[in-house]
Amino acid sequence: MPTPTNSFISFENRFKDATPTASSTASGAAVNLSDFRPYTNWKPSALPATVTVDCGSAKAADYLAIFNHDLYTNGCTIEVRGSTDNFSASDVLVHSYTPSSNSPFVRNFTSASYRYWRMRITGSTAPTLTIAAVGVGLELPDAIQRGFDPLGRKIFGQANISEQGLPLGKSVLFEQWGEKITVRRALQTWVRATFIPAWLAHLRDKPFLYAHDLANHPGEIYLVQSGEQFSTPIISSTEMSLSFDIKGVA
Predict the structure, then answer these.
(1) What is the model's pLDDT at position 144?
(2) Considering the entire predicted model, what is its pTM?
(3) What is the tally of structural domains in the chain?
(4) Which ranges in 73-198 belong to alpha helices (H)?
(5) What is the model's pLDDT at position 166?
(6) pLDDT (0 to 100) of residue 180
(7) Alpha-carbon distances, residue 181 vs 6, 21, 56, 83, 249 (angstroms)
(8) Is residue 1 part of a domain?
(9) Which domain, by its residues, includes 178?
């Protein structure tokens, strides 16, 4: 599939369809890759390394997302593979990527459906991965709104001053990025059939990855969670707008 220029959300993950199996484990567990939590991980003990899942029936995927990793530092390439027979006679290379940095990334590929999905890592040194997702991406149906701020942030910490009020610097805990996502025009059928099921299944209560423009700014990917509500005012008999808040660490 073409690299999206509209907002792209990564939440669906084939590795959550069943418990994934790792070829080896030095630390953590393969199941940690699928929970979108930034404090759990998996590291294999040897390369090549694989993580494989049996989805029970053929399930589609059109993207690979990796967040918080050292694949580049360790000289690794990551592959997405599919199979109809648990990688016996059927072993199809769906996508391959060699990162050029340790920044998070989302890679889109032509949609394919397999019962068995596998992530395979090759390279010189075993990496550590925190979040890995292979699934069907959610691309919002309208371009990003005017006034959207992809880089602004708020500091959380403590400002220090002297007894005379002179600035002494800050103790920074983290920086937070947040924005209101607005889809100005969307088909009512899309909101009801696509967005609301995604909201109920994941977006309302679990972390997810958000990218505002993968084609032009592929490194600007945030691990976020949604606010407490979304709104869908009607524009016409077939269209409505959609807006919701998200926040994450910058």
Answers:
(1) 81
(2) 0.92
(3) 2
(4) 188-190, 196-198
(5) 87
(6) 94
(7) 11, 36, 35, 37, 16
(8) no
(9) 154-249
Domain limit, last residue, from 113, 139, 165: 139
Q: What is the pLDDT of residue 250?
A: 86
What is the predicted pLDDT for the residue at 163?
86
Question: Which tokens in the block code for residue 243?
Answer: 């807006």
Query: Beta strand pairing status for 105-122 and 49-69?
Result: antiparallel
Q: What is the CA radius of gyration of the chain?
A: 20
Q: What is the model's pLDDT at position 145?
A: 79
Give the integer Cα–Cα distance in Å for 141 and 73. 36
How far is Cα 69 from Cα 116, in angstroms, rounded to an integer? 24
Among residues 180, 144, 137, 151, which one has the least CA distance to residue 6?
144
Cα–Cα–Cα angle for 122, 19, 220, nearest 5°? 55
d(CA 136, CA 32): 19
User: Which residues face 113 on adjacent strands?
Assistant: 60
Q: Which residues contact 45 (CB under 8 A, 6 or more apart)?
A: 24, 25, 26, 126
Looking at residue 48, what is its pLDDT?
A: 98
Same domain, 123 and 186: no
Question: Which residues fall within 8 angstroms of residue 55, CB to CB, at 6 or more apart?
Answer: 14, 17, 18, 114, 115, 116, 117
Which residues of the chain are under the pLDDT cut of 50? none
* Cβ atoms of 134 and 63 closer than 8 Å: yes
Separation of alpha carbons 52 and 242, rounded Å: 36
Burial bucket for residue 13 (CB in 10 Å: 0-12, 13-18, 19+): buried
